[in-house]
């Protein structure tokens, strides 16, 4: 599993039949220790309805085909969760919504 930030959307009108109806998102991995984005942009199938700018959890390989949305599909990277907060060593390093 990897954390990433949704950077945009990919639109494809011509694709393999098993990908019809699936939302394609551009994501950029996040280094959990530094909270910096790292590496290049990747395309992932969105199984949870994430939006641009959100921090998400992604899975790859056979795990990416273990959701109701992606089962039996030609998928290698899936968004499986939208992250609300991240705590490391007792300190909150990310929070989606500020309290107040």
From TrEMBL:
Please name the SUPFAM superfamilies in this protein's record: EutN/CcmL-like
Q: Give the matching InterPro entries.
A: EutN_CcmL, EutN_CcmL_sf
Q: Can you tell which superkingdom this protein's organism belongs to?
A: Bacteria
The answer, when asked if Aminoacyl-tRNA synthetase is one of the entry's keywords, is no
Question: Which CDD domains does the annotation name?
Answer: EutN_CcmL
Chief subcellular location equals other
UniProt xrefs under Gene3D superfamilies: EutN/Ccml
What is the name of the protein in this document?
EutN/CcmL family microcompartment protein
Q: Does the keyword Transcription apply?
A: no
Location(s), subcellular: Carboxysome
Which UniProt keywords are present, listed alphabetically?
A: Bacterial microcompartment, Carboxysome
């Amino acid at each position: 599993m990897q954390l990433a930030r949704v950077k945009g959307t990919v639109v494809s009108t011509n694709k393999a039949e098993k990908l019809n109806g699936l939302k394609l998102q551009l994501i950029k991995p996040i280094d959990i220790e530094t909270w910096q984005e790292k590496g290049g942009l990747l395309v992932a199938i969105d199984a949870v309805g994430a939006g641009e700018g959100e921090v998400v959890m992604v899975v790859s390989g056979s795990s990416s085909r273990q959701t109701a949305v992606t089962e039996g599909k030609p998928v290698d990277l899936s968004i499986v969760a939208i992250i609300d907060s991240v705590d490391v060593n007792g300190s909150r390093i990310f929070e989606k919504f500020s309290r107040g």
